[in-house]
From TrEMBL:
Its EC number is 2.7.11.1. ATP binds at K696. It is an enzyme of class 2 (transferase). The lineage of its organism: Eukaryota, Viridiplantae, Streptophyta, Embryophyta, Tracheophyta. The keyword Translocase does not apply. The chain crosses the membrane at residues 610-632. Pfam families: LRR_1, LRR_14, LRRNT_2, Pkinase. It comes from the Eukaryota. GO terms for molecular function: ATP binding; protein serine/threonine kinase activity; receptor serine/threonine kinase binding. Residues 667-934 form the Protein kinase domain. It comes from Quillaja saponaria. This is non-specific serine/threonine protein kinase. Keywords: ATP-binding, Cell membrane, Glycoprotein, Kinase, Leucine-rich repeat, Membrane, Nucleotide-binding, Phosphoprotein, Receptor, Repeat, Serine/threonine-protein kinase, Signal, Transferase, Transmembrane, Transmembrane helix. Residues 973-986 have a biased composition (Basic and acidic residues).
Length: 994
């Protein structure tokens, strides 16, 4: 028995020993593999890290010795041998060069550095990565050539290097990369020809070479690519014709050759590409100005998925292709403008019920418009201008209620303007000029308050007076009714059109005085009222319009003395000839001096009456200033240097480069706190008074930065509001190397940007504390709305911010929000006043992706309602906790639609989950009230960011509605507090009794 036990004890001992040794061995083994075998990966990563010069999100802080490198942010290792297989640092705001030792990570299969600021060349050591499948460097500043020894990476499936500054040709050596599926080289400075060997890459799915300088013709060989879905070659200098062989690449969905020099005719059998979705050949030299040019169109009726056909700005001649009517009803965009087509529009056009843009402008089309056009109810843009269309404007056009742009100018339309157009309540631009229209202007049409870019009815034979409904055009910038037969007086209501920059009423029969109400139109820069019979004195306010550059009042019946200030100082800006009763003014106007009819004494008396109060006022102001200065000095001598040395007005005096360099430790990267739209922001301490400031240094190499500096100075000079970021000073000078240097100095916001709070980074030290409670979010939302309300409704002229997004909302130490970054801001009267007459599919955008209102993409000009859109997105983002660019909103669904779909029953399913789990908040707020509040907030967000601009909720209404939510919250909180307090009181009573 004992023996037995002994034996079993021995066995146990042996077993334990064995186990112990095993453990030892395996731990030793892992230590050796780490220090020898994989040391190379470890060292290579350290070297990678050492080339990162800016890392505001502190991603690289996890890359240290205390953590195994397989657990560093962005690293994925092979489990069995601990080798790095994926390096993924997508969108981490990193700046630096890419270390050549990347080539030592020999097991790498994927590199993803997209959306950072890497510069320098792509190291040719990447060619050592024989397992590499996926190279993604999109949207950085990589320069130099594409390394030719990438040709060794024969496993490559994806090369994505779009949006860099690469030069040179596509190296011929790359013909070895036969497994390539995606080749994206768009928007670089690449040159040379498109290599013919691409035709051997049978797996190719996407080829984008757009926006480079490629030359020569499109190789026939691309027709061999039976897997090709997308071929984007737009924005190059390609020539020749389009190879017929392309119709063999039977899986093609997208062909975009916009903006090249392609000529010849299009292959007849394009229609055999059954999967085509988008065909864009705009802006080339295709066609021969002759009949038959468009015969390929017939075959396209087989393409049942076709949504976009762009043929505008080519040389297509011949009859308007009536086979268009047989196209798939999927068609959304059809542009044939600026060609040489003739013929008329067939009735069957009404079949294309999903069209959103129909461009037929600048051709030789004739005949009348079919009533069936009214069936195209989804049309947002209809361009018919510059043709020979005749007959009446069909009243069915009033059914096109989604229209934002209607261009019918330069045709031969006749008869009345249909009142039904008044139903098109999303119109931003309407032009009917240069036709043969007559009758009066319908009040329904002139009262279309959505019109904000232009309304042009000039050069017709319109009669009657200007309807008072004109006063509804409060967003309109350009108004042209010149060269008609309008009569009567100018309505007082015209003074409500405060966004006007251009007012053209010349060549009519208008009479009476210029109404005093027009003094509100201070944004006007071009006024033409000539050739009417307007009378009375020239109103004084005209001389106070600061923006005005041209004022034409000639050939009217004005009388009396001409003012001498403002525009009247400059004889070249005004024209007053043909007004026989005008006198005085500056000498260069060459008008007779005014002979005085009033008795001398009364004039003197009058002068006294006017001058005395002015003198008194001036004296009073001077006294006031003196006492303020005196007080200020006393205060300063008492207190020593006061905390804010820069008063709000002397910021213009500026600070020097040296002072800023000193305050930011020589712009050291330790002081870098962020990157704005046009430069970097540093934290600094001014030596004068120790004030902590944020210094925004403009990157002058970036296009537009200089203009942005001026815009921002200009915008900030004029505005003061609790919720706007305060500028302290500016610096425009040269740095120590003699380079131009521009910087703005702001008050420092210790809590960073709203973006940091809405999207805290998981491994950030602040992660846990950076969670905003419901009421904090609501307060920030109200602050931002306040700031916008001030810009839109209390600044003269109104200011459009143009870049509202969470990273431009900064939080001070008390979590009060301040809107900053006025780099894109503009005064409403300052905007480009030359809206493109031929809108094409590509338009420059203003703002940040995800927050840009859709109308800007359609050529719409910045407007306050555009800011409201961005604000709505910001509001939804704050409470949902997801960016508008989040994957969840891809498939044709915007964050706004996403929220709208969940309203009201499912709102709790989509809000930031933290809002529901916040214990502290739950004490104050019962779930029902929280839900009620969230529904209201989401509703406001949705009504701000709907597509039709004029249906958006104006920001002053937003402010009111958000306040109502806050009241609801406060009431509930007080009720709950009272109840809790009541209960405690009750308890203490009981315990006292005991
Ligand atoms: C990368 O490998 C090369 C060649 O083996 C070696 O010379 C270099 O030091 C390595 N780089 C790093 C950072 O370890
Ligand atoms: C590179 O980006 C593309 C597109 O965003 C993505 O599909 C791919 O997975 C990325 N590659 C890596 C290694 O993350």
């Amino acid at each position: 028995m004992n023996n037995h036990r002994l034996m079993s004890n021995n066995l146990l001992l042996k077993f334990l020993q064995g186990f112990f040794l095993l453990c030892m061995r395996s731990s030793l083994e892992s230590a050796t593999t780490f220090s020898s075998g994989n040391e190379s990966d470890f060292l290579a990563l350290l070297d990678f890290k050492s080339r990162i010069v800016q890392d505001p999100l502190q991603i690289m802080s996890s890359w240290n010795n205390s953590i195994h490198y397989c657990n560093w942010v962005g690293i994925i290792c092979n489990k069995s041998n601990q080798k790095v297989v994926v390096l993924n640092l997508e969108e981490r705001q990193l700046t630096g060069t890419l270390s050549p030792s990347i080539g030592n990570l020999t097991f790498l299969t994927g590199i993803n550095l997209q959306n950072n600021s890497f510069h320098g060349e792509i190291p040719h050591e990447v060619g050592n990565l024989l397992h590499l499948q996926d190279l993604n460097l999109t949207n950085n500043y990589f320069g130099g050539r594409i390394p030719y020894n990438l040709s060794h990476c024969t496993e490559l499936r994806e090369i994505r290097v779009s949006y860099n500054i690469l030069i040179g040709q596509i190296p011929d050596q790359l013909k070895s990369l036969r497994k390539l599926v995606f080749l994206r080289l768009g928007r670089n400075n690449l040159t040379g020809r498109i290599p013919t060997w691409l035709g051997n890459f049978s797996a190719l799915h996407t080829v984008s070479l757009a926006l480079n300088n490629f030359q020569g013709s499109i190789p026939n060989e691309l027709g061999h690519l039976s897997n090709l879905r997308m071929l984007q070659l737009y924005g190059n200098s390609l020539s020749g014709s389009i190879p017929a062989s392309l119709s063999n690449a039977s899986r093609l969905q997208v062909l975009d050759f916009y903006g090249n020099g392609l000529s010849g005719t299009l292959p007849e059998n394009l229609g055999s590409l059954q999967n085509l979705i988008r065909l864009n050949f705009e802006v080339n030299r295709l066609g021969s100005w002759k009949a038959g040019d468009l015969s390929f169109i017939t075959s396209l009726s087989n393409c049942t998925a076709l949504k976009v056909l762009g043929l505008a700005q080519n040389q297509f001649g011949g009859e308007f292709p009536s086979s268009l009517a047989n196209f798939s009803t999927q068609m959304k965009i059809l542009t044939l403008g600026s060609n040489a087509m003739h013929g008329s529009i067939p009735v069957e056009i009404g079949n294309l019920v999903n069209l959103t843009l129909l461009g037929l402008e600048n051709n030789h089309l004739s005949g009348s418009l079919p009533d069936a056009m009214g069936m195209l109810r989804k049309l947002e843009g209809l361009e018919l201008n510059g043709n020979k269309f005749s007959g009446l404007i069909p009243s069915s056009l009033g059914n096109l209620t989604a229209l934002t742009s209607l261009s019918m100018e330069e045709n031969e339309f006749e008869g009345y303007i249909p009142t039904s157009l008044g139903k098109c309540q999303n119109l931003l631009k309407l032009s009917l000029n240069d036709n043969k229209l007559n009758g009066t202007i319908p009040k329904e049409v002139i009262g279309l308050s959505s019109l904000s870019i232009y309304l042009n009815m000039s050069n017709n034979s319109l009669t009657g007076s200007l309807p008072i409904e004109v006063g509804k055009l409060i967003n309109l910038m350009e108004f042209d009714l010149s060269e008609n037969k309008l009569s009567g007086e100018l309505p007082t209501s015209l003074g409500s059109c405060t966004s006007l920059q251009h007012l053209y009423l010349q060549g009519n029969l208008l009479e009476g005085e210029i109404p005093q109400s027009l003094e509100h139109l201070r944004g006007l820069d071009d006024i033409d009222l000539s050739r009417n019979t307007l009378s009375g004195k020239l109103p004084k306010f005209l001389s106070k319009f600061l923006a005005v550059k041209h004022l034409n009042l000639s050939y009217n019946d004005f009388e009396g003395e001409i003012p001498q200030e403002g525009i009247f100082k400059n004889a070249t800006g005004v024209s007053l000839i043909g007004n026989k009763k005008l006198c005085g003014g500056v000498q260069t106007l060459h008008l007779p001096t005014c002979t005085d009819s009033r008795p001398h004494s009364s004039r003197k008396f009058l002068a006294l009456k006017v001058v005395m109060p002015v003198i008194c006022a001036v004296i009073f102001v001077i006294c006031l200033c003196c006492s303020v200065v005196a007080l200020y000095k006393i205060k300063r001598t008492r207190k020593g240097a006061s905390k804010s040395t820069f008063s709000t007005d002397d910021w213009k005096s500026g600070v020097s480069y040296s002072e800023l360099a000193k305050s930011t430790n020589g712009f050291s990267k330790d002081n870098l706190i962020g990157m704005g739209s046009f430069g970097s922001v540093y934290k600094g301490t001014l030596s004068v008074d120790g004030a902590i400031v944020a210094v925004k240094v403009l990157n002058l190499e970036q296009k537009g930065a200089s203009k942005s500096f001026i815009d921002e100075c200009e915008a900030l000079r004029c505005i003061r509001h609790r919720n706007l970021l305060k500028i302290i000073s500016a610096c425009s000078s040269v740095d120590h190397q003699g380079n131009e240097f521009k910087a703005l100095v702001f008050e420092f916001m210790p809590n960073g940007s709203l973006d940091d709070w809405v999207h805290p980074i998981n491994n950030d030290q602040h992660y846990e504390s950076r969670k905003l409670r419901f009421i904090q979010r609501l307060n920030v939302a109200i602050d931002v709305a306040f700031a916008l309300e001030y810009l839109h409704h209390h600044c003269q002229p109104p200011i459009v911010h143009c870049d509202i997004k969470p990273s431009n909302v900064l939080l001070d130490k008390d979590m009060v929000a301040h809107v900053g970054d006025f780099g894109l801001a503009m005064f409403l009267f300052e905007e480009l006043s030359n809206p493109t007459k031929n809108p094409t599919l590509t338009v420059g955008l203003k703002g940040s992706i995800g927050y840009i209102p859709p109308e800007y993409g359609m050529g719409g000009q910045p407007s306050t309602l555009g800011d409201v859109y961005s604000y709505g997105i910001l509001l939804l983002e704050m409470f949902i906790g997801k960016r508008p660019t989040n994957e969840a909103f891809k498939d044709c669904l915007t964050i706004c639609q996403f929220a709208a779909m969940s309203l009201p029953e499912h709102i709790m399913d989509i809000v930031d989950p933290f809002l529901l789990s916040d214990q502290e908040e739950n004490v104050d707020l019962d779930r029902c009230t929280l839900e009620e509040c969230l529904v209201s907030v989401m509703q406001i967000g949705v009504s701000c960011s709907i597509t039709p601009p004029n249906e958006r909720m104006p920001i002053n209404v937003v402010v009111k509605k958000l306040h109502a939510v806050k009241n609801l919250y406060d009431r509930s909180k007080n009720r709950n507090r009272r109840e809790t307090a009541g209960r405690t009181e009750h308890l203490s009573l009981i315990s006292n009794h005991k």
